[in-house]
Amino acid sequence: MIPDTDKAYIAGLFDGEGSIHFKRAPEKKKKHKGKPGYRISNSLRLSMEITMTDKSVLVWVHEVLGVGTLTDKPRKGKRVDGTPYLKQYRWRCTFRDAYYVCCLLWPWAHTKLPKIQQVIEHYATQRVEGGADIINLKEYKMRNKLVR
User: Fold this and answer.
1) Any idea of the CA torsion for 60, 65, 66, 69, to the nearest 10 degrees?
2) Coil/strand/helix, residue 109
3) Do 112 and 104 form a contact (C-beta atoms < 8 A)?
4) What is the tens place of the pLDDT at every residue in 29-72?
5) How far apart are CA 23 and CA 15, in angstroms?
């Protein structure tokens, strides 16, 4: 159980330092089973991330939420004065983990609220095996724990 104060803090951090990428578009993909040629697929790209130079904050976010990955972000180029940029770290989650995080942050989000609502609305209409709606987050987390 995540305290409301932690959820609110993460929502504020995400509003300031985070980003959501939600895009549905046709993509060109290879055909299955070694068949020659390509096919057009209506694909969804969904991810959310927080990038910053303070690793300890992102480690805390990763531990509290229990989803996503924490990686080093590659540095590109140098500043005008020739000094390198500070090392950055990125916490990132995708698809249903992003849905879980969006449901947690929704009551406290402001700037990213339209995108968060878009993710929630997308998954609220999806169905899992057996035809049940994906609504119960506790059940979803239990399924993930059993699979891992």
Assistant:
1) -70
2) coil
3) no
4) 878 777 888 888 888 889 999 999 999 999 999 999 999 999 99
5) 19
